[in-house]
Amino acid sequence: MIPYLLDSQVLIWHKMDRASLSSTAISLLENVDSDLSVSLVSFWELTIKESLGKLEVPGQILGLYSDWHSMTIKDPLKLKWKHVLRLGKLPPIHRDPFDRMLIAQALEEDLTILTCDDNIRSYPQVKTLW
After folding, report:
1. How many CB atoms lie within 10 A of CB 26?
2. Neighbour-count burial of 78, counting CB atoms closer than 10 A to its CB (0-12 exposed, 13-18 middle, 19+ buried)
3. Assigned CATH class of 3-129
């Protein structure tokens, strides 16, 4: 089974805008046997955006976290030193620091990122699916 890391946008769309998800993403998110992970980095990003008024999340971030736990028993992927070290080796294709960390985590943990973000998909060494 392929392990997946959800992009922050996928996490939001799953709760707020399912029509924006691809049919592949919906299938993976609805399949109880899918090996899905969400990074704490995504919750960090969404909390910052919400506190700055750039994002409105019904039920707030805690609701997203609770929804995630109801989908899977996995805890969110934690940030590790090896992720930070990998981040420093990434080419500057993507400028968003949160997405860059997701890329580093995916590479270090051998995860496929579920994303529609073309900038993430531009990294040739990163496995993505949409």
Report:
1. 14
2. exposed
3. alpha beta
- Reported residue count of the chain is 130
Question: pTM for the full model?
Answer: 0.90
Question: 């934690």: which residue's tokens?
Answer: 78
Confidence class for position 98, pLDDT limits 50, 70, 90: very high
Q: Show me where the domains of the chain are located.
A: 3-129
SS (H, E, C) the chain: CCEEEECHHHHHHHHHCHHHCCHHHHHHHHCCCCEEECEHHHHHHHHHHHHCCCCCCCCHHHHHHHHHHHHCCCCCECCCHHHHHHHCCCCCCCCCHHHHHHHHHHHHHCCEEECCCHHHHCCCCCCEEC
Residues 18-62 pLDDT 10s: 899 999 999 999 998 999 999 999 989 988 888 888 887 766 766
Two structure tokens written together for 112: 């496929």
